[in-house]
Amino acid sequence: MPSVTTVLSGTESEKSKAGLRIWQEKNPGALQAAATRGTAIHQCCEDHIRGIPVNCPEEYLPFWNGMSQYLDWFDTIHWSERPLRPDWNHLRSDDREVAYVWSTEHKYAGCPDLIGEIGGVRVIADFKTSNGPYSAFAPDRGDRVGYGGWRKFQKCAQQMAAYRYALNERVGYKCDVALIIVTTEEITQGIFIDGDQLDLYESRFLKRAKMFHDLNPEEEDINEAQDCSTQELQEQTDAAST
User: Could you tell me which of 189, 70, 169 has the C-alpha nearest to residue 123?
Assistant: First the structure.
């Protein structure tokens, strides 16, 4: 199944895709640098959650400072990159190295950063590092920095709504709210998204998932072939066991 981020990227407008290409041309290596930074901060978060000493590379310390206070809000943690509760272990790969949630109904998959509870409220959270702050509000006309933060927020909100839907489909656990934890070199943000807003972003994402599959019919053929192969293998196994 395509990942949530693949669905979102694959259904961007041509204008947005062109803008990203231009930005990459003007900032060679910046995308990879951001990915490396994000991976380092995610590792810091995982270590902190598990009570392991955090060894953050010095160049990323400004992005780590301030993050732990939001992680410490959680009273209970059910998932940190992978399930921490035994009844969710079927969401892990056979080698137990990775874990996913997925929707068989809408055909997508992904890995949430954090799922837990704060004061009994079910929360799905995502860690982001950014050169600029996120914004939950549409910017004024001409505010390019604000527009960038707002677009990032919109994409992340749909991403978490997609994970929430898939998690509920798989294990019947529906998060009440989402929390985006964003760190920049100057500030750390904790942005909550309530259930009604998540329902709206969920609807938007599911429309994009349908659009993605409509635009990529070859994906359907591959999935159908894999499903048939799996079914044939199961039939052979069942026959052998009888």
Answer: 70
Per-residue model confidence (pLDDT) at position 221: 47
User: Region 142-167: what's the mean pLDDT?
Assistant: 91
- CB within 8 Å of 13: residues ≥ 6 apart: none
How far from 76 is each of 64, 119, 129, CA to CA, in Å? Answer: 21, 9, 24
Q: What is the pLDDT of residues 7-39, one digit of tens each?
A: 999 998 887 777 778 877 887 888 888 899 999
pLDDT of residue 102: 97
Distance CA 204, CA 201 (A): 5
Mind listing the pLDDT tens digit for each residue in 124-143?
Answer: 999 999 999 999 998 888 77
Amino acid at 7: V
Residue of 84, 77, 79, 46 whose CA lies nearest to 64: 46
Residue 132 pairs in a beta bridge with none
